[in-house]
Amino acid sequence: MFDNNTFNNKIALVTGGRSGIGYQIAKDLLQLGATVIIASRKEEQLKKAADELAKFGTVHSHPCDIRKTEEIQGLVKVIQEKCGRLDILINNAGGQFPALTEYINDKGWNAVINNNLNGTFYMIREMGNAFFIPQKNGIIVNIIADILRGFPGMIHTGAARAGVENITKTIAQEWSDFNIRINCVAPGIVESTGLDTYPKPVQDMFEEAKKAIPMHRFGTVKDISNAVCFFASDLSSYCTGTTLYVDGAQHLNYDKMGLARVMRDFLNPQ
Ligand SMILES: NC(=O)c1ccc[n+]([C@@H]2O[C@H](COP(=O)([O-])OP(=O)(O)OC[C@H]3O[C@@H](n4cnc5c(N)ncnc54)[C@H](OP(=O)(O)O)[C@@H]3O)[C@@H](O)[C@H]2O)c1
């Protein structure tokens, strides 16, 4: 089981580790003994989070936009200098906005695909080539979303996350000879800083949707981090290429929270 030594001598990178779910993952990995690097775009907030996290263990931070290969390669250099290797990559960075399909322009579509699909792929490729493949050892955990039945109201992120889930299945096979495991965690609605970014009607809808979640509550950042730590540890040593839904059974029982209907009513009030 987990104990303070679970991640002793392990080096873990958490993208988007300055806030919300990523912050909790970084905190838990530190408390379980890992050295953690957090990376995201906003340097000031990143530094502040790293300063706060330092009370739980050894933490480094480096600004990096996962959409930019040259910035990821800069991050690789920093990890090589400060830690000498990387054992665990948590692809948590991402974002999306609610929108009905017919209103999404090329810019909006490309922004989400570029961040949530391309950015995750670039991170996996660069960290794989720099660390995991030469080391013949590595663990990757991708945060996706509740996409089992499509994602009405957020088609772009549904497509991007489905892409990441398929990348996960491919890499589980291609890189198993390098002793690399890769899995996904699919959160339902999680009370985190990310949720605050949605407009008021969507937040009201989320409150309504809570009733339709079989467990009648939203997830917490800790619920998600627990699952991530399982996949990041040897407790999951025979799991690869799989997805764990952490959503109170929402993926089995919902009409996607009525998101598309609420948005249509909001956009076209009669
Ligand atoms: N909360 C939920 O209900 C929920 C449900 C399903 C999936 N998720 C996913 O879970 C992940 C964490 O969500 P959260 O709720 O914790 O949201 P959050 O607080 O908004 O966290 C997103 C993090 O990603 C970073 N980020 C975004 N784009 C980036 C980029 N291009 N390069 C580097 N870093 C980037 C952000 O930092 P910077 O701004 O500094 O770059 C931020 O720290 C996200 O991928 C989110 O989409 C969340």
Note down, in words, how this protein is organized:
The chain has one domain (11-196, 219-248): 3-Layer(aba) Sandwich (Rossmann fold). The radius of gyration is 18 Å and the shape is globular. The chain starts with 10 loop residues before the first strand and ends with a helix. Helix content is 44%, strand content 14%. With 270 residues, the protein is α/β, with parallel strands linked by helices. Helix 3 runs parallel beside helix 4 (106-135) and helix 4 (106-135) packs parallel to helix 5 (155-174). NADP nicotinamide-adenine-dinucleotide phosphate (NAP) binds at residues 15-16, 18-22, 40-42, 45-46, 65-67, 92-96, 115, 119, 143, 145, 187, 189-190, 192-195.
Q: What is the CATH homology-level superfamily? A: NAD(P)-binding Rossmann-like Domain
Strand content: 5-15%
Uncertain segments are none
CATH fold descriptor: Rossmann fold
The total strand number stands at 9
Helix content: 40-55%
**Element order: H for helix, E for strand:** EHEHEHEHEHEEHEHEH
Q: Please write the CATH class name.
A: Alpha Beta
Assembly state of the chains shown: single chain
**Widest sheet, order of strands:** 3-2-1-4-5-6-9
**Which architecture per CATH?**
3-Layer(aba) Sandwich
Bound ligands, each once:
NADP nicotinamide-adenine-dinucleotide phosphate
- Count of runs of 4 or more consecutive helical residues: 8
Rounded to the nearest angstrom, the radius of gyration is 18 Å
User: Would you tell me the structural class of the helices and strands?
Assistant: alpha/beta
Shape: globular
Distance between the termini: 56 Å
Biggest sheet character? 7 strands, parallel
